[in-house]
Specification:
two-stranded antiparallel ribbon; 223 residues; alpha+beta
Length: 223
């Protein structure tokens, strides 16, 4: 999840990552957040790409099962075994994140996400403790009460590694990459856009401007 700010100076705390990954946060102090010339150009180009995509996008949906097959058979990724520590960590954190997003009532007294009232040191410390407490409470909810169907796919190339995450129950697709090869990150971004484009949208998604449609347009317009 990306947070965008307007042209006004702000002083606030923003929750990030709540929709996709374990909740994290950052503090924005009072500062002038006006866009630079480069940022204005990037936004202009993004808007141009977005309009072009919206105009040309056609319904061509695929199921999450088909997406998983595409990631492995067409893009050459290998699925990480669910017994691997990396998978277990991702699963635990992702399941907790989905609980906080889709079933916060399971958290009882911690159902409502904490808010930062001010930027005093003690207040920030308490806020962090509340975030961790809520995350831990979500992780402690048994899978038989709330579970997800998470799959992790990886591709390793010497010093470069890319990872794509698919959650089939809620239609989530995520990814990350790290490496030293020139152009590797751009290459992964292109791959990730291919996955989203293959996932596609239905005509109903287009007509109703659904979350699936919005995420597809945003992902394809990103460079």
């Amino acid at each position: 999840m990306k947070n965008k700010f307007g042209n006004k100076a702000v002083s606030s705390a923003s929750i990030i990552g709540g929709d996709d990954k374990p909740t994290a946060f950052f503090i924005v102090g009072k500062s002038d957040l006006k866009r630079t010339l480069k940022q204005n150009i990037q936004k202009f180009l993004y808007d141009v790409r977005k309009k072009r995509i919206v105009k040309s996008l056609k319904a061509n949906p695929h199921s999450m099962e088909q997406v998983a097959d595409y990631i492995m058979n067409e893009l050459g990724f290998l699925e990480v075994d669910k017994s691997e520590p990396e998978y277990k960590t991702e699963y635990s954190q992702m399941r907790a994140s989905f609980i906080m997003q889709y079933k916060p009532e399971l958290l009882g007294d911690l159902e409502e996400a904490p808010k930062l009232e001010n930027h005093e040191e003690e207040t920030i410390k308490l806020f962090m403790e509340q975030i961790e407490q809520r995350q831990k409470a979500a992780e402690d909810i048994p899978p038989d009460i709330f579970d997800i169907d998470l799959h992790m796919y990886k591709k390793d190339d010497v010093n470069n590694q890319s990872k794509i995450i698919v959650e089939k129950n809620y239609g989530y697709i995520g990814g990350s990459a790290s490496g030293s090869k020139n152009g590797f990150m751009k290459e992964f971004d292109k791959t990730f856009r291919k996955v989203y484009q293959y996932y596609g949208v239905t005509q109903k998604d287009i007509d109703n401007n659904t979350k699936r449609y919005i995420e597809l347009v945003k992902t394809l317009a990103r460079r």
